[in-house]
Amino acid sequence: MKRKIELLAPGGDIDSMKAAIIAGADAIYCGLDKFNARNRAANISFEDLQGILRLAHKNNCEVFLTLNILIVETEMPLLLSLLNKLANTSIDGVIVQDFGILYLLSKHFKTLKIHASTQLTTHNEGQVNFLKQLGANRVNLSRELNINEIKHLTSVAHEKKVLTEVFVHGSYCISFSGICYMSSVLSGKSGNRGRCSQPCREKYLTTSVEKNYPINLKDNSAYFDLRELWNAGVDSLKIEGRIKEFEYVYTVVNSWRKQLQSFYTNDILLDDNSDLHKVFNRKFTNSFLKGNINKDMFIDNPMSNSTLHLSEINQYSSDDERKQGTIKLYDEKEKTRNYIKNIIDKLDINKIPLMIEISGTCGTVLKARIKTPDMSFLVQSESNLADEGMQSLNYEILLKKLRALDDTGYYIKKLNTEQLGKKLYIPFKELTALKRKILFVLNDSKEAVLPITLLSLKRPSSVKINPRLSVLISSPKDVLLCEDTSVNYYFQLPNSFKNKVAEFINLFNSNEKLTPWFPSILIGEDYTAAVDFLHNLQPKSIVTNNTGIAYEAYKMGINWIAGLYLNITNSYSLLALKENFNCSGSFISNELKYTQIKAIKKPDDFDLYYSIYHPIIMMTSRQCLFHQVTGCEKNIIDDSCIQQCEKYSSITNLKKDTSIIEKTKGNYHTIYNSANFLNTDIIKDMPGLFSSFFIDLRDIKTETKIMMNKTSLINLFKNHLSENSGSTQQLEQVIYPSINSQYKKGI
User: Fold this and answer.
1) Does this model's pTM top 0.70?
2) Backbone phi, then psi, for 564, in 5-degree steps?
3) Are the beta carbons of 393 and 426 closer than 8 angstroms?
4) What is the per-residue pLDDT across 482-520, written as a single tens digit (0 to 9) for each?
5) Which CATH architecture has domain 6-172+217-344?
6) Beta strand 658-663 pairing with 669-673
């Protein structure tokens, strides 16, 4: 008998979740109205969640809750309150991005299974090990990976008893998830907070190759690749679509369920995916999965392709035929919608009523008879009722003590105290114990989890810090800058340097002042080469934006600093890095505003870093971003493209926002904001918090102009750190134009 793969469906609202259940999903992922990465979805309330859990479990379907956004410090008490409530539900897993949530879950909520979100950009084996150490039971692998990379990472994960899931249907992101800041920069709506405005789908000024939607990808569909995914050992097939409506969810889940059944039963894959074309789609591609990253993955239209597909397959000879075909499609869709709606409206997710009868007299135990539509049971106190005490029992006190039952899949419909004697007393701890006994029975004989209360994190003792300047370079010619011993110098390693490991080892050995700076994305052989580099160089310290390299540095005992693009936004993330991986310091996310940064409390013996000047990376893509902009003589990306290609261009949307597209040797395609980030305020706003302030002096061409050489600019920034009079104004004159909107708006 074939190993079964989980079919994981999106649930953006109650109807979509019901539709997924009746279509045959093995599991659903959904979000509450807080802390999830689909802010535009309807989402559900905690009360709704209880009913969904009951309905799903009755139909052998699991439910995973998305808590997959970055958390700011002030939200921690509300988050903790939610986790305390979730611990006493039957939720089957929580999907997370933030290291702080991972820390709390792994340390204090061990009954909750942890799923690492796609926002964590998991694409190498070191990252799997990193997430396992933070308590993850499952990882969602990056959508850009090919089947061989998926197979390798799944094998590594299984050795660690970690499951893997892969997106197999729905929207593709042009950027690696979790490190896209385009929406955040252009509209103040952070994708890391579930508020992405999808600027990649917007219309732009027509490019030189006549494209209006130059960074818009077709949708992902691996419908005909099930056998390869099964052979790769993948545990879960995930469908994207939490902002889609219920008929979309039903149709896609139903189609995939049929494909799975045919594969399990007959070892045959269905060759008809016509139903998938009848619901929203931007045409389909499986090119990432096939390792065939090509020009055909783009589509110059962000709208649904359903009616266009109908025209293509029927080859209508006239507009009248096309119109009739479209009407027929819409009629069919309406019938399907009504059919599904008729079924899901009959599915009840309302809470189950509780009838509670309290009885007892002086000298006897306090009894509570609980009745539901399906069962009846009796619980009682350990000690007897007395005729004296602090406060006599009455309806109001009992209702208050039992009110926590309303936070379950049940609610107190009636509380009857007519059989309870007058002026009776019992310790309140007995009422708490009585409540736990009731919860134990209602929760399928599972003990209630006591709420966790965290001690307030303390600020470290006030010590005057004279912050150092840190400078990032990426060109060997800039090594000549590294003469000032009062400055930290970082050297950016490329995404792929597998053919230049010896060359870079020689560079760092010849320049001991340089600290390696590892990029966010290191896949396959490029990750292996980076690990080999680390082992051969044995540096004293590194900065890494890749958690796989962080894990290797930790294992080797190398001092490491969490980089700018690990998205650190709260104190518990810092604790996670320090306590689990002996991290010595961390950059704080530039998405945060002043008050959000100021609320962070760093651990003792831990350094904080902040970038005050840099070109703003808005996204990094494994796809070629020039196909639709300037054109490219090659249809497909291969290894020579990564190693050798150097190109530069720009795109401008209809709001006149220009974005810079750059490809350099050894790196993936990157989009930068037209103006660089410059924050001259934070040094005086938060004295004593940061050990170092960072500037990025790599040769990245944007519309920001710098009116002095790099040596002079470094000296000007040093003067600014020393708060020398006039240095701030001079910086803003020398570096122009610049922005610091994220420091003002936050996330």
Assistant:
1) yes
2) -60, -30
3) yes
4) 988 999 999 999 999 999 999 999 999 999 999 999 999
5) Alpha-Beta Barrel (3.20)
6) antiparallel
